[in-house]
Each structure stands twice: as C-alpha cells, then as structure tokens.
Design brief:
CATH class of the largest domain: Alpha Beta
Number of domains: 2
CATH superfamily of the largest domain: Crispr-associated protein, domain 2
Pfam families: CRISPR_assoc
Number of strands: 11
CATH topology of the largest domain: Alpha-Beta Plaits
Strand content: 25-35%
Structural class: alpha+beta
Mean pLDDT: 88
Largest sheet: 5 strands, antiparallel
Radius of gyration: 19 Å
CATH architecture of the largest domain: 2-Layer Sandwich
Helix content: 25-40%
Organism: Rhodovibrio sodomensis
Protein name: Type I-E CRISPR-associated protein Cas6/Cse3/CasE
InterPro entries: CRISPR-assoc_prot_Cse3 (IPR010179)
Distance between the termini: 26 Å
C-alpha cells in the first residue's frame, strides 16, 4: 500500500517541538536539514531506512510537506504536524491527460562526476552568445529546454508521453548543502509543470512512489498529478 500524505507544521506545538517550529518559521533551518524535519513524520525506530519521497513548500511561513510513503505518519508526529493522508490508488487509463508538477535535481553524468545540467547548458549558451555579440539567453528558457530533454529520457519508464509545448520551468535555484563533518555541495532544484498523456498506467502507478531522478533525500523527485 502507498499513501499520499500532506502535512503542515503546527503552530501550537509545545515544548522542544515548539522550539523547532520557531526555528523553521524563522527560516533558520538549513536546506540540508529538510530531510531530518520530514523524517519526524515517518521514523518509528532507529533501524528504519528512508522509504518515502517528498517535497517541501511553504504556506503562510510554515513548511508544508507532500509525500508518497508505504505507511501513514506516526501518531507521535501529530504533536508537530497537522496531517492528512489517504491511500494512493489512482484509476488511470491509456490516453488520460494529466497536469503535473515536479521538482527535480537536473544533473547529468560527466565521467565520474554529476554536474548541474541547467548551469552547464546556460554556461555554454552564454559563452556562445558573448562570442557572437548576441544577447545572453534567459536562464529559465534554457532550464525549460534542459527539463524537456530530462523528462523525455524518462518518459517511457514512467509510462507517460510529455507535451513539450506545454512544459514550463517555473523556478530554478541552487542551494548549498552542508553535510556532517563540514563537507558541502551544491544542490540544483528545477520546478517543472506541464501536461502529459498516460501510455502505461501500471508503470506510472509503480514509478510515482519511488520518485524520479536524484536528490530525493533533499525533496526532489515527487511528481504531483491531476486530471487535465
């Protein structure tokens, strides 16, 4: 069983949880700690591995989490979160048209390294434009092109066919993640919206709870869908 979950940080949490609410509401929580916050919804023991995908947004200054998980949040989590959940049992058929929203980590492999595909494409286009004396392209336009290619490579495995004309890059940003021990790396985040047609319903239903692409521990890979 897979559940679709929406949770919003409570305003009336008390004790140490109340301190955490203030910490988050003051935007003092580092991006790399989002997973730790979301983990309070699902952790039921020290041996539990992450088995959910999520994205975090904001509503009136409070973090809002949407997630796919194989179990509902723990009862203890309700001290910190307002929680809604329901079984994820969509009824889909070939040819269904869906609207989607997806936050991805748009990386590509370059030898043994993963690089930001949006920045790499923008840098190449910028250099070419400057050499030709032309205007540097808009970064979101390039992000849209990169996102379109990124999705096309995954379309068959997702059981979808994406409408390239309807795809929009809503936002692109980078964040510095600090890991234990002081190590840091840059995480790129690309928000895509658009339309898609279902080609293989079962493949899509199985793929969504697993998440799409890299960066799942940092809130990437969850695709939200609704009928168009």
């Amino acid at each position: 069983m897979t559940y679709m979950i929406r949770a919003r940080l409570r305003r009336d949490a008390v004790g140490s949880d109340g301190a955490l609410v203030k910490l988050v509401a003051d935007n003092a929580l580092a991006p790399g700690k989002r997973h730790d916050l979301v983990w309070t919804l699902f952790s039921d023991g020290p041996e539990r591995d992450r088995d959910f995908v999520f994205r975090m947004d904001e509503d009136a200054g409070r973090p809002v989490v949407t997630a796919y998980a194989p179990r509902p949040p723990t009862e203890d989590a309700r001290r910190l979160w307002e929680v809604w959940h329901k079984p994820f049992v969509p009824k889909l058929y070939p040819g269904d048209r869906l609207r989607f929203s997806l936050r991805v980590n748009p990386v590509k492999q370059a030898g043994n390294a993963r690089i930001d595909a949006v920045y790499d494409a923008f840098d190449a286009r910028r250099k070419a434009a400057e050499a030709a004396g032309e205007t540097v392209p808009d970064r979101l336009e390039i992000a849209r092109d990169v996102g379109c290619a990124w999705l096309d490579r995954r379309a068959s495995a997702l059981g979808l066919e994406f409408d390239a004309q309807a795809l929009e890059a809503e936002a692109y940003r980078t964040e510095t993640i600090r890991k234990p021990g002081g190590k840091r790396f840059t995480l790129s985040l690309l928000d895509l919206t658009g339309l898609a047609e279902v080609t293989d319903p079962q493949r899509l239903i199985e793929a969504l709870p697993a998440g799409i692409g890299k960066g799942k521990a940092y809130g990437c890979g969850l695709m939200l869908m609704a009928r168009a």
